Amino acid sequence: MPSGLDAAFVRRAVGKGDLNAVRLALCQITRDPELLDLPPVPALDEAGRALIVEKAVTWLVENAGPRKLPEPPPGELRRLMELAAGETVSDVEFDFRREIPAFNDHPWATLWDGQRPSIPPGFTVAVVGAGFSGVAMAIQLELLQIPYVVLEKQSEIGGTWSRNRYPDVRVDTVSLGYEFSFEKDYRWSEYFARGEEVRRYLQLVADKYGVTENVRFDTEVEAAEFDDQSSTWRLAIRSPQGRDTVTANVLVTGMGTFANAKLPDFESQEDFRGEIVVPSRWPDELDLEGSRVAVVGNGSTGVQLLAPIAAKAEHVTVFQRTPQWIAPRPLYGTPIDSEVHWLSDNLPGYWNWQRYIHNSALFGAYDLMLNDEEWVAGGGLVNPKNDKLRDDLLAYIRHQTGGREDLIEKLVPDYAPFARRPVVDNGWYEALTRPHVSLVTDSITGLHRDGIRTADGRLHDIDVIVAALGFEVVKYLEPAVFTGRGGKDLHEVWERDGPRAYLGMMVPDFPNMFMLYGPNAQSLPSGHQLPAMFVIWASYIGQCITTMLTEQKSRVEVTEEAFGAYNQRLDAQAAKLIFMDKRGAPDKNYYVNQQHGRLQVNAPWWGPDFHRMCSRVDWDDLHLA
Ligand SMILES: Cc1cc2nc3c(=O)[nH]c(=O)nc-3n(C[C@H](O)[C@H](O)[C@H](O)COP(=O)(O)OP(=O)(O)OC[C@H]3O[C@@H](n4cnc5c(N)ncnc54)[C@H](O)[C@@H]3O)c2cc1C
Fold first, then answer.
1. Is the C-beta atom of 504 inside 6 A of ligand 1?
2. Which residue among 345, 420, 533, 586 is least packed, with the fewest CB closer than 10 Å?
3. How far is the CA of 315 from the centre of ligand 1 (A)?
């Protein structure tokens, strides 16, 4: 027994941990047939659960200690994955999932295949943006030892998590998935980390992997132009030192989809005597104690900040245009106990399997978004799974509002769950039931010096308006100007039917330019969160660059045919999902480009399919010269 270890403490740690992860870690370490033969944990009876606890306590008391496990051989890894949820894992699913437990040092990364060739003098990659995506790209380049520079208009690393500092800002996807899989076992203090902690995490990663020293802060890229002669990009930049240019062989944009907040533009806005606040520009000194506050908007941000505002304000009026499906999320707002951290440190494999299990919650989510015409013909609304979820959420709304019919009739959406980004309940419904919080669904007609006017003619007295109106996702990469081959302007190319790209990354006539989190790139809930996708896309770009260098080529570009065929397939797949018809909410959904009536933000693919497309370059689709 390791010295000083208290068996009662160990038992408490196992009790607080995730039993499924404990079981899988023990199975991997001990290959104990009794544990391997048990049913999956979610279906386990009390005796089975107790058996796992006993075996875990016994093993830990004897062997606890920091040790990393190697990745098990594929057959064994797959068996453990199947044990996790009691389901078979197909080949394509296995390919998609195998790096989620992150046993390898740098899951998904591109490394040199053989010796690193000599890099031509002056060869540089310019990465625009130091948020999660830009940092992921920079680390990929660090691993390949390819020179790069990151240009960032803010003064620090963080992107989204640097800009957004409103009350209770935090991830609404679990932190064990919203992190880089090469940075193992970060000490998150809560299961859903607060914004500042996420920012600090990204800063730490950027420092640790040598990225920060390659970032030029306070430097905005205003324009980029491709030079056909030299096959390089010339970037026009602006910084406190003035205007300058940067030349790069490859250009990678990680400029963010949610970089530009929608700014309030109400009728007679100038008449309002109070303060108007945009969440992504939250003033540090703002004190809402005793104020009459309007929260306009009930998207993820508006919902996240209501409860903390209601705790301070004298009165809060929530202005809702479109009801949202707002759902509880297990462990949201819950700190991670020190015993669980101890388990992560001392039960080898626990962290890996806990990560896998957290991510696995979304493995089946794609089915929720598929139209089932047969089911609808039989009287269903979307498909059995989605209709069941709707029933559960209806019951949740009823429960949280204490059955208040006046609220319930305003709160139930007329479109299917998952048709818009699911919103996590941060005490929103409960806040609405408080005497000093009111819900207004009449549309806002304009501002008055004392508050907000609504279509029913009422004036709502307000001191502070919090305008949580969402983001200008359609203005992708704006206001920067990108000029490709033959003087083509990227935003003019996109005028025809909105931003499009091949795999969300490449556009013909824009050689050596890649976008991270580009058009139609946001994968639907599937098991890979965005940080994983950033690494996968960065690795794809890494494959393109290493091939250019080993084959001594100077440019890589998607062909017109591949771009067209990909987008045709993409539109056909989008048509099978709930977003674009009456089951969705196409006229009030940021996933959809309203002007062109097409899915723009999301990748319509099933996660494992999209992963397959993005993780290996299909050279038939690209032109290398
Ligand atoms: C409030 C909020 C909560 C969110 N919560 C979640 C969540 O829980 N889970 C999840 O998966 N996603 C969430 N997201 C989405 C989030 O944006 C992404 O997860 C991720 O942070 C995007 O990273 P990024 O690097 O692509 O973009 P960003 O974080 O936006 O970073 C882009 C960077 O590029 C810089 N930049 C832009 N243009 C230029 C230019 N012309 N020149 C120089 N620099 C430039 C910006 O200053 C910024 O630093 C949330 C978004 C918001 C706004």
1. no
2. 345
3. 32
Map residue 243 onto helix, strand or coil: strand
> What token pair was written down for 44?
């386990």
Q: Are strands 292-296 and 315-319 parallel, antiparallel or unpaired?
A: parallel
Q: Is the CB of residue 250 less than 8 Å from the CB of residue 545? A: yes
Can you give the pLDDT at residue 3?
Answer: 56
b/e map 243-274, b = 16+ CB within 10 Å: eeebebbbbbbbbbbbbbbbebebeeeeebeb
Q: Which residues pair with 522 in a beta bridge?
A: 602
210 vs 144: CA distance, rounded Å: 13
151 Cα–ligand 1 center, Å: 14
Does the C-beta of 202 come closer than 6 Å to ligand 1? no
Q: What is the C-alpha end-to-end distance of the chain, expressed in Å? A: 63
- Which 3 state secondary structure label does DSSP give 233? strand
Pocket test for ligand 1, best of 160, 190, 215 (most atoms within 8 A of CB): 160
Q: What is the pLDDT of residues 555-601, one digit of tens each?
A: 999 999 999 999 999 999 999 999 988 888 888 888 989 889 899 99
Q: Which of 611, 280, 616 is nearest to 470 (CA)?
A: 280
Alpha-carbon distance values, 223 to 246, 247, 251, 479, 588 (Å):
11, 12, 12, 9, 31
pLDDT at 475: 87
Q: How far is CA 253 from the centre of its chain?
A: 17
Report the pLDDT value the prediction gives residue 526, as an integer from 0 to 100.
86
Residue segments in the chain with a per-residue pLDDT below the cut of 70? 1-3
Locate the ligand 1 atom nearest the alpha carbon of residue 222 and give its number. 41
* Probe target for ligand 1 pocket from 161, 258, 477, with the most ligand atoms within 8 Å of CB: 258
Q: Output the six-digit token pair for 520.
A: 């139609």
Q: Provide the token pair at 345.
A: 């440190």
Ligand 1 pocket, residue 171 CB under 6 Å: yes
Q: Which amino acid type is present at position 568?
A: Q
The full 3-state SS of 92-137, as one line of letters, equals: HHHHHHCCCCCCCCCCCCCCCCCCCCCCCCCCCEEEECCCHHHHHH
Is the CB of 478 inside a 6 Å radius of any atom of ligand 1? no
Q: In one letter, which amino acid is 385?
A: K
* pLDDT score, position 341: 96
Whose C-alpha lies nearest to ligand 1, atom 4? 171
Task: Assess whether the C-beta atom of 359 lies below 6 angstroms from ligand 1.
Answer: no
| Exposure string over 6-27, b if 16+ CB within 10 A, otherwise e | eeeebbbbbeebbbbbbbbbbb
CA–centroid distance, residue 529 to ligand 1 (Å): 14
Query: What spacing in Å lies between the alpha carbon of 277 and ligand 1's midpoint?
Result: 20
Residue 470 CA to ligand 1 centre (angstroms): 13
**Interval between CA 574 and ligand 1 midpoint (Å):** 24
* CA–centroid distance, residue 146 to ligand 1 (Å): 24
Check if the beta carbon of residue 293 is closer than 8 Å to that of residue 309: yes
What local confidence, expressed as pLDDT, does residue 2 receive?
A: 57
> How many angstroms separate the alpha carbon of residue 582 from the centre of ligand 1?
30
Q: What does the alpha-carbon distance between residue 55 and residue 33 come to, in Å, rounded to a whole number? A: 12
